[in-house]
Fold this sequence. Notes:
The structure is a single chain. The chain is an alpha+beta fold. The protein has helices at about 15-40, 45-65, 85-105, 110-130, 155-160, 175-190, 205-215, 230-235, 260-270; strands at about 5-10, 15, 145, 150-155, 165-170, 195-200, 225, 240-245, 250-255. InterPro entries: Lgt (IPR001640), Redoxin (IPR013740), Thioredoxin-like_sf (IPR036249), Thioredoxin_CS (IPR017937), Thioredoxin_domain (IPR013766), Thioredoxin_ResA/DsbE_sf (IPR050553).
Amino acid sequence: MSPLDRSLVIGPLALSVGQLLLMLSIVIALIIGGWLGRRRKVNVGDSIFNAMLLGVIGARLVFIVQYGESYDTFWSWFDIRDRGFEPLAGLVVALVYLAWRLWRQPHERGPLGTAVISGALTWSLTAGALTLMVSQGASIPSTTLTTLKHDEVTLPTMLSEADRPMVVNLWASWCPPCRREMPVFEQAQQERDDVTFVFVNQGESLSTVSAFLQQESLTLDNVYLDRNNALGHDVGAMAMPTTLYYNADGTLIDTHFGELSRATLDRSLARFNL
């Protein structure tokens, strides 16, 4: 897993490192913009906030245009818990707004321009340094897992036997987002025989997992136990759900941290180029 995709838990809040760095960059931009704005008696905080908001809206709209057919209802378009965004589109929208703002409000150019550059430099220096730590995609870990029939397996062995891409979902029955996304995985597993779906329960007993599957009427293949959370530790996922996408060679090509929808699952599956 890329350093930016590693998750951190802060009390009840779970965030990826990438999200934390983005928040840090925005805070830096607001601090610099506020400080310079006070000196020049202009307020650039609203411009920065509006750029961020428009960027988020733009990123979501473009994602919906691309994967709208994967959503069951119109209202599900607004459920951003699946983190279905197109970051590049959002960046373009934010930059267009900032360019328009700088053109229309010349007195904001100094403070706002400096704030934006400061935020961009913060992101580049922190995220860029972390990305350089991993020169290539991480390999699938050889963590020993246990089947529901008490046999031991490893993901690399399964991958070599199946000779096809693998989607690995880390979950727990007490995790509400995990429970909500399970039907999505069940449907995908039934429809896609060109991808191996694996469900690795983190830290729960066989009886708990079996009772959950029966209670929810879920029919899932490849459900494994990881009682010591070893796989989560090996891949740097401290919160759930986390979904990892490995190609047939065992190289990590995508990560989804948090709840997903059929749309965000389809987006990641498309990267297998099957």
